[in-house]
Amino acid sequence: MSVDPEAARTGKRAAQIARCIEAEIVRRGWPIGASLGSEAALQQRYGASRSVLREAVRLVEHHQVARMRRGPNGGLIVCAPDAGPATRAVVIYLEYRGTTLDDLLDARLVLEPLAAALAAEQIDEAGIERLRAVLSAEQQRPGLPAARDEFHVALAQQSKNPVLQLFIEVSMRLTRRFALSSRTDSATEALEALDRLHDDHSGIAAAVTAGDSARAKALSERHVQAVTAWLQQHRRGDRSGRARPRQVRRLDPEAPRGKLAEVLAAAIADDIAASGWQVDAVFGTEAALLERYRVSRAVLREAVRLLEYHTIAHMRRGPAAGWSSPGPRRRPASTPSRCTCSTASRAAKT
């Protein structure tokens, strides 16, 4: 895929402006609902063309820290941040680093008992209702592992510790990937395992709502150890215990372009991880990627910009156009034009 050098400069400048906008929001104390200025005012402030500024705004919107509102009272409006993009970036980085099942569960054994103990000390009536609602959802959706993941995220929220919340959500996303690639002898065995999870969660929730910090911590430790034993027993395929990314998702061609580009970027990142994250390996030409993902050229190129921003992939010029993987901390090559799948060395910074 041939890349215009001017387009590459535009992308780099847009990323710089996006970081400046995000830094300004932080300096101003994250004034949700406030306008940072109209498109014209922002162009003047940053000395950028309309196309560069709009590219920067798309990156800021991707991080869900601000959105452009059109109309006479429009402007770039500060939003409440969402942990989703940061969580996805950390998951990608950990997958690249070859995080194993043992690595993951060792970390969970530290994080989750602490979160349970803090939740028992901090929980309020709203938090109690939240845990009860999650437990009820587990019973209503007995065959869905994702409903079980939600309990751990909800419990971390009750700890009132945002660092624990973020990293427990990351750990649950990784755990789900291991769980989806595990094997069971029968559907009955899988359902029985989910029932045991629900029983464990109910016990932890009871200790938390009773304010019994020591018991909540002990039950959480026991639960993580049980999950560890089950996943190790039912590990499939790769003996290294590395996560196996989920299958490529179906893309909705009717989705808004920006949203579709984000979903596509996540799908491509999963495919890169599934391919073993081979440094400097060509991932595909533009034509091949358009055929594989069945999206428009505009959507694909916007997804590429998101991947480049997180240094997951970048484009290199040359006759063998496509994506390849340059390895950690290496700058994108300036002459060859293939789409390279870079490592996620910067992803954890997002």
Rg, alpha carbons? 22 Å
Residues in β-strands, percent: under 5%
| Coarse shape | globular
**SSE-based structural type:** mainly alpha
User: N-to-C terminal Cα separation, in Å?
Assistant: 27 Å
Round the mean pLDDT to the nearest integer and report it.
Answer: 79
- Which ranges are low-confidence, i.e. pLDDT below 50, for 5 or more consecutive residues? 1-5, 245-250, 325-350
What's the number of extended β-strand segments? 5
Major sheet description? 3 strands, antiparallel
Q: What's the number of domains?
A: 3
Question: What strand order characterises the main sheet?
Answer: 4-3-5
SSE ordering: HHHEEHHHHHHHHHHEEE
Tally of helical segments:
13
CATH-defined topology of the largest domain: Four Helix Bundle (Hemerythrin (Met), subunit A)
Q: Architecture of the largest domain in CATH?
A: Up-down Bundle
Oligomer: single chain
Helix content: 55-70%
CATH class call of the largest domain:
Mainly Alpha
Q: What attributes does this structure have?
A:
transcription regulation, 3 domains, mainly alpha, Arc Repressor Mutant, subunit A, two-stranded antiparallel sheet, transcription, 4% strand, single chain, 350 residues, DNA-binding transcription factor activity, three-stranded antiparallel β-sheet, disordered C terminus, Four Helix Bundle (Hemerythrin (Met), subunit A), disordered N terminus, DNA-binding
